[in-house]
Amino acid sequence: MEHQEPIIETPQLPPIEHQGVMLSPAPVDYKLVKVPLCPACRSEDVRVTTTRANLRYYKCQCGETFKRAKDAE
Mind giving me the DSSP string for 25-37? Predict the structure, then answer.
């Protein structure tokens, strides 16, 4: 009889529903990034457009673009 590797089951997280869309759960090592507030409209609906060595450039849904220094990671 061959030696078999033990089967390790990963815990199954339930899917998440966000604004009516079913999302698969994030992996355990998923890193959350703090989203800056838009300086013009104070919204959190911003996305990263460009990443530099120590800067991130963001664009808001209102059209405002801004940059922030990367946090020490």
Answer: PPPTTPPP-PPPP
